[in-house]
Design brief:
Layout (H helix, E strand, L loop, with lengths): L9 H28 L5 H19 L2 H6 L2 H4 L2 H21 L4 H28 L5 H20 L1 H7 L6 H22 L8 H45 L10 E8 L7 E7 L4 E9 L3 H15 L9 H13 L7 E9 L4 E7 L4 E4 L6 E4 L2 E2 L13 E4 L5 E5 L15 H10 L6 H15 L10 E8 L3
Parallel strand pairs: 5-8
Antiparallel strand pairs: 1-11, 2-3, 3-4, 4-5, 5-9, 6-7, 6-10, 10-11
């Protein structure tokens, strides 16, 4: 029969039990908060939660009240739990500190975490080999180094300004200093062969942990405020960007036009514009800025400004592209722009097309049901100051269909890593001969989504213009 566990000091045992439960509860609260917020920057809450929970478990396994309540078979796990928490609590605590650090301090702490984990692995191996915690003294030395570093960086303004990701850290500084003083006091007591007051270390750790938690929540709240501000600004930018695009295709009696525009992010680098001259003649411009987001969107707005100077030469694709390129080339700052321009004159029964490094124009002929790619490319904008843009001129008849698009239409990949590609796009166009321009636009977008694995986020901006020469 196993010997019963004796509880010599019920008051102290109850204090240890309450302390352990407090830290476990605090850890669970921190982890729950991290799960609920689900935003970037909450990793520190995860580390603090684990840190607190491990300290609480350490207290609980030292409480005879807890051990006595365990089944006899489970009591043999207590030394192992004590070893795990004893060795792993330091790297978890250092990771909490890491989330507040910058620059060289961050790199130094990463090395310290790696060293902590090596010591923990070696210590646990030795524990399971011979049942002794032989490396705890080395673990305590590393803990002293981490605490000293924390207190030093927090206490010296020049260091905190340079190496901390937070500006207001008074609460954390006070908590770290009090914790360091408690640790120093306890170590001096141990060195003199005395015992520090019961629960003294738990009190010191509670001060440090609560100050860490306060600082973490302040940092997260500040960051989320900035994110909300950025999101509002991006929403305004999105509205402004949509305002520079045509609200709807112009009414032209001899043409049917549908435009699709789906940005990957709040703002995009794709751009399109219509240049109508009268009820029978119109130009169509599509452009794609390299990259995504705000920088690309700013260049897209520059293209809008550049197109205002080309109305007088709308019937000459080469001159339209040359003027836009000249306007952009000095301001692209290392980015590139592809563009395509199609001019249609239904009275003369002809079309002209030119492009700057852009995917080909698709042209479907109703007369014979043929589909051809029309490529007439010069260099994309941003490569050289000047470039020639060859023009392809061809006849058009009623029922002909044209498709201008950016590479976001053909580059989406399936699970095998195969791109949607021009052939897939051509198949959709050929199988949709009887559909309206609006239906074809919708069908292409549906086919692209079906091509990609379920739940895949859009990888590029998508712009597409479908034009039918009306039958009269």
């Amino acid at each position: 029969m196993a010997a019963e566990i004796q509880i010599a000091n019920p008051g102290l045992e109850l204090g240890i039990l309450v302390s352990g439960l407090f830290f476990v509860f605090l850890g669970l609260m921190s982890l729950s908060l991290a799960c609920l917020r689900q935003r970037s920057g909450v990793r520190i809450l995860i580390w603090i939660g684990l840190w607190s929970g491990m300290f609480g478990v350490t207290d609980l396994v030292h409480a005879n009240l807890v051990t006595a309540a365990l089944p006899i078979a489970a009591r043999g796990l207590v030394p192992g739990i004590n070893a795990f928490t004893g060795y792993l609590i330091l790297p978890v605590g250092t990771l909490s500190f890491l989330e507040l650090s910058l620059g060289k301090l961050r790199r130094g702490l990463q090395l310290l975490v790696a060293l902590d984990l090596v010591v923990a692995a070696a210590g646990l191996y030795l524990f399971f080999a011979n049942g002794r915690l032989e490396l705890l003294s080395l673990n305590n030395l590393l803990a002293a180094c981490t605490t000293t570093t924390l207190v030093t960086v927090l206490s010296v303004p020049k260091l905190s300004q340079r190496y901390l990701a937070i500006s207001g850290h008074r609460v954390l500084t006070i908590g770290a200093i009090l914790f360091a003083l408690q640790a120093l006091y306890a170590n001096v007591y141990n060195f003199l062969g005395l015992h520090s007051p019961p629960l003294f270390s738990s009190f010191g750790f509670a001060i440090l942990l609560l100050s860490f938690g306060y600082t973490a929540m302040t940092m997260i709240s500040t960051n989320e405020g900035r994110l909300l501000s950025i999101e509002k600004e991006l929403e305004i930018a999105r509205e402004l960007q949509f305002s520079i695009l045509p609200s709807s295709p112009p009414e032209v009696s001899t043409l049917r036009v549908a435009a699709s525009y789906e940005p990957m992010t709040a703002v995009a680098g794709d751009f399109y514009q219509f240049l109508p001259i009268d009820g029978h003649r119109m130009g169509f411009l599509v452009a794609d800025v390299s990259g995504h987001g705000v920088p690309a969107a700013l260049i897209a707005s520059m293209i809008k400004v550049a197109t205002q100077a080309v109305n007088g030469c709308a019937s000459d694709p080469a001159e339209v592209l040359r003027l836009i390129g000249t306007s952009l080339n000095g301001n692209l700052r290392g980015q590139f722009v592809t563009a395509a321009y199609l001019w249609i004159d239904t009275v003369a029964g002809c079309a002209r097309y030119s492009a700057a490094g852009h995917p080909p124009l698709l042209c479907w002929r109703k007369a014979d049901g043929s589909l051809r790619r029309i490529e007439s490319n010069g260099l994309l904008f941003g490569v050289t100051a000047e470039s020639d843009y060859p023009v392809c001129e061809f006849p058009i008849t009623s029922g002909d269909r044209f498709l201008l698009y950016t590479d976001g239409v053909i580059e989406p990949e399936n699970e095998a890593g195969e791109q949607f590609g021009e052939r897939q796009l051509e198949q959709v166009v050929l199988s949709s001969q009887s559909r309206t321009v609006w239906d074809l636009s919708k069908t292409v977008l549906e086919e692209i989504r079906a091509w990609q694995p379920p739940g895949t986020a859009q990888q590029d901006d998508i712009t597409m213009i479908v034009i039918d020469v009306a039958e009269v």
